[in-house]
Each structure stands twice: as C-alpha cells, then as structure tokens.
Amino acid sequence: MKNIFTSESVTSGHPDKICDWIADHILDEALSQDPNSHMAVEATIKDDFVLIYGEANTKAIIDYAKIAKEVIKKIGYNEEYEVLVKVNKQSAEINEAVKHDEIAAGDQGLMFGYACNESRSYMPYAIDKAHMLAKTLEKVRRNNPNLKPDGKTQVSVEYDENGKVKRVDTIVVSTSHTENITQEEIKEIITNEVIKPVIEEEYLDENTKYLINPSGSFIVGGSFGDSGTTGRKIVVDTYGGYAPIGGGCLSSKDPTKVDRSGAYYARYVAKNIVAHKLADKCLIQVAYAIGKADPVSINVETFNTSSYSNQQLLDIINKNFDFSVKNIIKELDLQRPIYKDTTLYGHFGKPGLPWEQIKDINI
C-alpha cells in the first residue's frame, strides 16, 4: 500500500486568512503603542460586512474599522466594507490571574511543537511545499490582473518504506479569477509560473497528478463566495496535519496567551533538537494552567529517530530551555509588533521569526 500524506495552504485572500490578518494587524497596533497589551480581538467576514469583536486590555488607541479596511485593500479587494466593532475590556478575573511578577499563563491548554529534517525549513515536506505554492501564487496573481486574491494549494507526498519523501503524487492549485481568462490559460500560468518554480523535478514523474481549478470556474471568491473567521485555519497555520495541534488558534492573541507563545516555544525547542541532529523528528507537548507561570507538563517524542531516550532528551531540554511564560516572552522578545508577519503561509518555517532561530545548547 502506498504511504501518501497531504497538506494544504491558502493565500491572503481566503476569507479565513483575511480575518486572521486583520486580527494580527490589530494586535501589532496595540503592541506598538503599549507592549503590555493583553489582546484577544478577532474578526468575522461575510460579503461586504466585517465584525470585529473580543477583549482588549491596552492603553493603545486603536481604530479597528480603519485597520480592517486597510488590510482588505492591501490584500487586493476593492469593495467598500461595513465594519461593526464589539470590543470590551478583558475580564478582570483573567487579567488578575495573568498579572503576576512572574507573568502567568492567560489560560489553561496544551500546545505542540514539531520539527523534522524533510525540508530546509525543518517542516514536513507537504506543508512546506503547499505554503511555497500559495506564496508563489500570491506573487503571480499580483502581477496578473486576471487572477484574484482567493486561492488554495494542496500537496500529496508519497513516502518510501523508510519514511523518506519518495515523490509528489498530487498537486492541487485553485485560484479565483476574472471572466476575462479561460481555464486553459489559468492552467498554463499555474503550471509554468507557480508549480515548476516550487516543486523539484526529482519528485515529479509521469504519474504525478496536477489538478488546477478542479471545480472549474472560480469567479466569485473571498468573502462573497464564503464566510471567514479568525482561527479557522489552525492546521494550515501549524504542521499541515502532520503533527498534533493544541486546542487554541494562534492569530489575534498576545504573548501571555500560551496558545500562541507556548506553541511558538515548543516549535523552537523541537527545531533545535532536530537542527542539532539529536533526532530526525521531534514532537514537543507542553501544557499550562491559568494563573501559573510554569507548565504543568512537558513531553517529548522522537518516533525512534534518536539515539537518545526520550527521558535523556527531556533532560537536555530542561537544561537548555525554560518554558515559563515570563522566559518565553523574554527569550523570544514577543512583546513587539511582529505578528502580522506570522499570519500568512504558516506560523512556522520562516527564517526571520524568533522561534525559528537555532541556538547553542549543552548536551
């Protein structure tokens, strides 16, 4: 039986990603004015209507509607949007639970971090290539007036009996478009300008399937073709389904929310384990309780790809890394406006982000 695994990605014009990007622009605006902002402000979009809602504890003065409209324009939608804002102060009980000298977790929850040596980004090959296809599609459509912002990509990878990438089995690319272009023209553009620059020839063969706009015409896209909400693309945002995910989304949340900062630090640790060749694959689980500074548990799994036992690796991790909320925020310097750069094409695998850095560790 063939061992095939599939991951997908989306472009900035996908309605869920519109909402993620609005939320992270709002967070960055809050942090740029007040680094101690506690934010959980999300968005929902349908047709020409945007609802911005959530909790904020910040000294920042934020024009939520203006940010939303600017983000939508930046993506490439030129319609006029109505924006309704329902943002309240964060619950006093939650705020007091977080505000300790040590900085405590803003909620309970479990997070996962993962890394492997399948790609230069230390991400699983399928999600790495799905993101690269989406990013390339975004660049191509911005230079082609007949292609529109809403798009999705998907990559199916076949593994050999040793768990190594053998070939790419199927590539799916869907892009919204105007009425002025045929499906044949779209297929030619996507094949030559999106797929060929991204997928290595060595992984393509005569049996690789290319599905470009498989549903046919895709003229109505974005919020006019579907609704969108912050936090609905958590599998796209993380490991493409290759590794477990925690219970909370990433976008919109300030770094005291361990759904975000804990997930980032778990990736940081897992990547360092693999980058230092302590394992070929590494999965980290960490769990927190609201109002507590340190995690209630840390677990490591390397799927028999390490010469070290899981306990030995956990000892190495405890010697080199500190999962306390205060340290995560300090070590990764998270109280600054960096989050709109995380939203698109996954929160992991981008070399410029602090949790993607490789540091010296003591074995």
What order do the helices and strands come in, and which of them pair?
Layout lengths: L2 E8 L4 H19 L4 E9 L2 E9 L6 H12 L6 E7 L3 H7 L10 E8 L8 H18 L4 E13 L5 E13 L5 H13 L13 E4 L15 E2 L4 H4 L20 H18 L5 E8 L8 E5 L8 H11 L4 H7 L32
Parallel strand pairs: 3-4, 7-8
Antiparallel strand pairs: 1-6, 2-3, 2-9, 5-10, 6-7, 10-11
Helix pairs in contact: 1-2, 4-5
Give your account of this protein's structure.
It is a single chain. The protein has 363 residues and is of the alpha+beta class. The protein has nine helices and eleven strands. The strands form three sheets. A four-stranded mixed β-sheet has the order 1-6-7-8, covered by helices on one side. It has a four-stranded mixed β-sheet with strand order 4-3-2-9. Helix 1 packs across helix 2 (64-75) and helix 4 (125-142) crosses helix 5. It is flat, with a radius of gyration of 21 Å. It starts with a strand and ends in a 32-residue tail after the last helix. The model has no long low-confidence stretch (mean pLDDT 95).
